[in-house]
Design brief:
alpha+beta
């Protein structure tokens, strides 16, 4: 019947809409997996979460997460639009690794099978780099135009330890 069809459509619509709580749980999952990877591969205790990218699995999920993120903050870092949209959140999302103020919703990409990528900063990046980059095959140095970072593959995440905070790399203060 038409009524049953209408209710089925409404149910699907509500299922597809992501809310702040669900997005927050996903951000926390990525942050937690990143922290675990750092703890399992280093003796570093003083890491701060700086930024989280969530990798959308398909176009529908991307659009859903994007709508939710748009309602939580304003877009920044427009030079990286080809891979997704980055937001400065009006209210940080709380995670087990600390508060997240910057969130990227990344477009679906078959080369990114992970769920996301948390970025961390540490007090002495150069010391960390010297200690772990050569001593372990788990770390990879990645040099960008205006910053560098060390990549660590975790369970379902790509972890980045950066030599400067995200807001410095976009020239915008929070």
């Amino acid at each position: 019947s038409l009524r049953a069809c209408y209710h089925a459509v409404i149910k699907v619509w509500y299922t597809l809409r992501m809310n702040k709580h669900e997005l927050g749980e996903l951000v926390d999952y990525v942050a937690k997996q990143g922290t675990l990877a750092i703890l399992e591969n280093t003796d570093e205790q003083n890491v701060s979460i700086d930024y989280v990218a969530i990798f959308a699995k398909d176009t529908d999920e991307f659009e859903n997460m994007l709508r939710c993120a748009e309602s939580l903050g304003s877009e920044v870092d427009k030079k990286m639009l080809k891979t997704g949209h980055t937001f400065l959140l009006r209210e940080p999302l709380e995670t087990t690794a600390g508060n997240v103020s910057y969130l990227k919703i990344r477009k679906p990409d078959p080369t990114r099978t992970q769920r996301g990528a948390p970025d961390f900063t540490i007090p002495n990046y150069q010391e960390f780099k010297k200690k772990y980059l050569k001593s372990s095959g788990n770390f990879t140095l990645m040099v960008r135009e205006d910053y560098e970072m060390i990549e660590l593959k975790g369970i379902d995440v790509l972890v980045y330890i950066k030599n400067k905070p995200f807001e410095d790399s976009i020239g915008k203060s929070a």
